[in-house]
Amino acid sequence: MKVILKEDLEKLGQAGSVVDVKDGFARNYLVPRNLAEIATKGNLASIERILKEKETRENKKKKEALALRDKLEGISCTAEALVGEEDKVFGSVTPLEISRMLKDKGFFIDKRNILVEEPIKALGVFSIPVKLHPEVVANLKLWVVKKQEPK
Fold first, then answer.
1. Which of 3, 57, 93, 108 has the fewest CB atoms within 10 Å, i.e. is most exposed?
2. What is the pLDDT of residues 1-40, one digit of tens each?
3. What are phi and psi of 7, to 5 degrees?
4. What pLDDT shows up at residue 148?
5. Half-sphere exposure of 50 (CA within 13 A, CB side)
6. pLDDT tens digits, residue range 89-137?
7. What's the pTM?
8. Does the structural domain 69-146 have CATH classification 3.40.190.10?
9. Is 50 within 8 Å of 16 (Cβ atoms)?
10. CATH 3.40.5.10 in the chain, residues?
11. Helix or strand or coil: residue 130?
């Protein structure tokens, strides 16, 4: 039986593709779970329209991500860290802290999209990759400086 996939399925294919599956699999699993619909002429026409709309939305999201990337690369964040002897940092700067700094500047970026491989435990300037879209990554400049203690 030929079906049109509504969602990406790992072993079958991408959303919108027409695949041939066994009748029972289509009737008992794919169609009831709204993962696919039976391929008829009417459904094929409607799925093409849906795919075009999806592509338009994706292009719009990508353009917005590109604009946001340009804004993010134009700013820098400063994180103050407590340091001990020989400028050894206590603790670290984490993606959550970077996300909060960006929020204070008006950018709402989820901490999971800040791609720090390991916590930052040194003073200096760092380039932090921020994933804005599957195809768009911005590089944020982060300054880690000594926290000035009140006297």
1. 108
2. 999 988 888 889 888 888 999 999 999 999 999 899 898 8
3. -135, 160
4. 73
5. 13
6. 888 899 999 999 999 999 999 999 999 988 888 899 999 999 999 899 9
7. 0.69
8. no
9. yes
10. 2-63
11. strand
81 DSSP β-pair partners: 146
Q: Which residues pair with 129 in a beta bridge?
A: 139
Structure tokens at 136: 């768009």
Question: Between these two residues, 44 and 126, which has the higher pLDDT value?
Answer: 126
142 touches 126 (CB < 8 A): yes
The per-residue DSSP string of 54-110 comes to HHHHHHHHHHHHHHHHHHHHT-EEEEEE-B-GGGPBSS-B-HHHHHHHHHHTT----
Amino acid making up residue 17: S
- Band the pLDDT of 69: cuts 50, 70, 90: very high
Return the pLDDT at 42: 86
The phi, psi pair for 106, rounded to 5°, reads 100, 10
At the topology level of CATH, where does 2-63 sit? Answer: Ribosomal Protein L9; domain 1 (3.40.5)
Secondary structure class of 33 (helix, strand, coil): coil
